[in-house]
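We modelled each protein-ligand pair independently. The example shown here corresponds to the adenosine-5'-triphosphate entry; the chain sequence is given first, followed by the ligand as SMILES.
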Amino acid sequence: MAGRRGALIVLEGMDRAGKSTQGRRLVEALRAAGHRADLLCFPERTTEIGRLISSYLEKEKNLEDHAVHLLFSANRWEHVPLMKDKLHQGITLVVDRYAFSGVAFTSAKQNFCLDWCKQPDVGLPKPDLILFLELSPEEAAVRGNFGNERYENSSFQKKVLQSFYHLMKDKTLNWKTMDASKSIEDLHIEIKSVAEKTMKDIQNKPLGELWK
Ligand SMILES: Nc1ncnc2c1ncn2[C@@H]1O[C@H](COP(=O)(O)OP(=O)(O)OP(=O)(O)O)[C@@H](O)[C@H]1O
Ligand SMILES: [Mg+2]
């Protein structure tokens, strides 16, 4: 089956929409169905850059906003060789947050334009599918309080959501909005079905480059 590649499937959405829950479930289900699949979460906190980001998010460290944005992007870039290797070996990658979160969070800050925010991520592996888990702030609140990490407050989150909606207007990308207020199981069944269709559709197509 030479040449058949895995799909790059990204989960995006607001905090507590269920990205991590669905990412784990999807990888488990794909493996159970006989596919090869791996989960990757950004920020990936185990590298040197990842540890720096983690201490920033935990408010142990203060870093300049532009510098932080570039670190988040660098954290994705440092995983690109591994991602490409896996995709070309036929492994589907399920990615919990990607460049869209990076851009949405920084561009929600004062004095950042969306275009500047996108530049560092231009050329990353292009997702074959981006699942946007849509959940109202009210419904998200029922799932527990915000933690103590940076960005976990509701006025900032509303600005982040506006940035996501702006990014979703890009018709060169395969965005699918999913109703994240459904039960974990119902949402999982829908996500699995969309994911398997994408895996079939793209298996003989080349991997694209994001925002190019
Ligand atoms: N469909 C659902 N219905 C009800 N509760 C859910 C659903 N999906 C996830 N949850 C619960 O909501 C909480 C947040 O889920 P999860 O950690 O998967 O969200 P997330 O999008 O990864 O959040 P974050 O952005 O903070 O990482 C967890 O307690 C989880 O069990
Ligand atoms: Mg999560």
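The two ends are 29 Å apart (CA to CA).
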